[in-house]
């Protein structure tokens, strides 16, 4: 019998405070919904503070990490604006 979901291939792994992991795993958190407006992605979140994401390219992996980190301590109503600012700050690199 195997435990877990198997090997995570590709993508990008990073750590955040455990409180952020609980937040993005919880109901009603718009962080992941807002990120999904900019790029398709897969995510695995551990209660140990580790997050793994995979997007269509490595640059978007890094931007998703940046979005999540920048949302630390941001109230829900300000999350969409914060994520928009992060994506816009990467526009010169994306073009």
From TrEMBL:
<dbReference type="GO" id="GO:0071034">
    <property type="term" value="P:CUT catabolic process"/>
</dbReference>
<dbReference type="InterPro" id="IPR049469">
    <property type="entry name" value="RRP40_KH-I"/>
</dbReference>
<dbReference type="InterPro" id="IPR004088">
    <property type="entry name" value="KH_dom_type_1"/>
</dbReference>
<feature type="domain" description="K Homology">
    <location>
        <begin position="11"/>
        <end position="58"/>
    </location>
</feature>
<dbReference type="GO" id="GO:0071035">
    <property type="term" value="P:nuclear polyadenylation-dependent rRNA catabolic process"/>
</dbReference>
<dbReference type="Pfam" id="PF15985">
    <property type="entry name" value="KH_6"/>
</dbReference>
<dbReference type="GO" id="GO:0000177">
    <property type="term" value="C:cytoplasmic exosome (RNase complex)"/>
</dbReference>
<dbReference type="GO" id="GO:0071038">
    <property type="term" value="P:TRAMP-dependent tRNA surveillance pathway"/>
</dbReference>
<dbReference type="GO" id="GO:0034475">
    <property type="term" value="P:U4 snRNA 3'-end processing"/>
</dbReference>
<protein>
    <recommendedName>
        <fullName>K Homology domain-containing protein</fullName>
    </recommendedName>
</protein>
<dbReference type="InterPro" id="IPR036612">
    <property type="entry name" value="KH_dom_type_1_sf"/>
</dbReference>
<dbReference type="InterPro" id="IPR026699">
    <property type="entry name" value="Exosome_RNA_bind1/RRP40/RRP4"/>
</dbReference>
<dbReference type="GO" id="GO:0000176">
    <property type="term" value="C:nuclear exosome (RNase complex)"/>
</dbReference>
<dbReference type="GO" id="GO:0071051">
    <property type="term" value="P:poly(A)-dependent snoRNA 3'-end processing"/>
</dbReference>
<dbReference type="GO" id="GO:0003723">
    <property type="term" value="F:RNA binding"/>
</dbReference>
<dbReference type="GO" id="GO:0000467">
    <property type="term" value="P:exonucleolytic trimming to generate mature 3'-end of 5.8S rRNA from tricistronic rRNA transcript (SSU-rRNA, 5.8S rRNA, LSU-rRNA)"/>
</dbReference>
